[in-house]
Automatic annotation (TrEMBL):
GO terms for molecular function: phosphatidylinositol binding. Residues 14-55 form the EH domain. This is Sorting nexin-8. InterPro entries: AH/BAR_dom_sf (IPR027267), EF-hand-dom_pair (IPR011992), EH_dom (IPR000261), PX_dom (IPR001683), PX_dom_sf (IPR036871), SNX8/Mvp1 (IPR028662), SNX8/Mvp1_PX (IPR035704). It is found in: Membrane. CDD domains: PX_SNX8_Mvp1p_like (cd06866). GO terms for biological process: early endosome to Golgi transport; intracellular protein transport. Residues 132-240 form the PX domain. Pfam families: EH (PF12763), PX (PF00787). PANTHER family: SORTING NEXIN-8. It comes from Nephila pilipes (Giant wood spider).
Amino acid sequence: MAADLAFGNVPPYYREMYDIVCPSQENIVDHDMFIKLLVKSSLPKQTLSQIWDLVDSRQGYLSRTGLYKALALVAFAQQGKPVSEKLIQNFAGEELPKPSLGDLTDLRILSIRLRREKNPMRLGLTYHEICALDTVQISLVPEKKGLFLKHVEYEVTSQRNKSMVQRRYNDFVALQELLLQKFPYRMIPQLPPKKVIGADDQFIEERRKSLKRFLNLLARHPVISEDKILHFFLTFAGTDVQHKMKDHFRGVLDEFNSNEQAKEAEELVPIDSTNQLAIVREQMKQVFNGFLQLKEIAERMVERNKQESVDMLLFGKELCSLANSASTESDWGSGGNETWDYLRNGMKNLHPMISNVSSAYVELVSEEENDVVDELNLFLDTLTAYKDLCDRYEHFSVALRHKSSSKMLPRRSTTNPIVIDAENQAIQQNEKRNNFFLHCIHMETQLVHTYMHILVKVLQSLVNLQTKGLSNISSLWQNMQPLVETLIPSPGATTPTSTISR
């Protein structure tokens, strides 16, 4: 590994820490972030003070070099060594030790918030940073019977909140309604359809996957991930969730009334934002169509491998059936030829080997569905949410223009200063809301571009799965080759005792 410093080689973990505690990316470590990082080491205050004295540059800020020194000293202190400059001076040529700092989720979130505050017109997040915000898993709870109809429950776990709760589909509906009420200017994913009658296992599984994507997009959203509504959904362990949630957040104001950026939204909106939005919307339509085609092709690939698995299983079973059929009772038909007996023995041995090939295709199908198809669906869900957001803005913009034009008519026939002042304030408020809407769309557009990294992930998964999966299948076929080539012994070779009656 290349050495960044004179006192030792820098492990990747150090660079990861730098990216977190230096949100401005200007080689200046945020002081508060650094203090929070030190506290996570669980070292005594006296030790932390010693580390601070050794790395403080006396320049009012901490550099990348100072941070790396601090991380090394923390690691040494956790090993029970006394804090000293000599510890790292004697480490030249070796990789510096990795400190134990526990869960860094809260630091990542703080870093994201600071980054937005320092440059509110740039999202400035990578795909990996977004994914690190939280990971939500959803599994099916064993089926329960209602009074008239059975219903499905889901077990929802949140890595960030360290929570595990049970939810029904209607709870997800209530969550979406509340979020649309509070965050109409953000991407809120769509929910899968509700099917009351005739919901087979395939439909339930597809809906589970869709709900998982729904929650992960919310839990990884830079703004929504910090909201109390989502936190309630992911952590509340009581019953009657949808009604409790609606009661708890009844009359919640939308983001325009609570976000500090709404006050200065006009300064955050470039002059050509409306024109740029039109261009981007057309681009996103093309991207959506392209990803939709990729998803459909990937689904066909999965279906082919499913059929391949079924065919291999049937092929093996047929061989087994033939192997278990009655042996020849006399040489009247065979004329002393022992081929059938050799084949019966060989087919019995081939059956489990061909079943292994079928199982290998099943494993490949599962990985393709999870790592390729579902990831493509995740990005398509993102693009659909973006389209819905733009449609909401278009409806809002049309309504705003209609209100503005209709309010101009009465003003010509009134001189009441109170009425005129109220109308002017309403127009100004709507213009501020429009600017905030545009600013949010600007940020959401950048978030969509961040999610485009999914294609990289999909291509990597596809290459790895095909390489590993087909190589495994090829090996299974190769293992069969010696058996197949010796099904019939060569002339003169020692042969097993024939079962043919003489």
